Amino acid sequence: MKEKIETLDLFKAQLGENFEVGQNLLKIRISAESIARLAEKQVAEDGEFAKVYAESIVNWLTEIAQVAELAVAKVIEVNGKGE
Prior knowledge:
71% of the residues lie in helices and 0% in strands. It is an all-alpha fold. It has one domain (17-78). Helix 2 packs antiparallel against helix 3.
């Protein structure tokens, strides 16, 4: 399996104006992985009581969706389609 892309890979790719988009997409991946690990841990520890953490997960996923929205808006802006 290919190694995961990190910030250094973004610099090496010389993305220019799309660097911010790549950075935001990387943030999305990192956040989603963190949430998945936490959820797995809570389910393992608390079983059926893990749903107590659902409110926090909703908040985190909302934040992830906002980062994704910013990334998409940047792609549109950079490509001149947002005018």
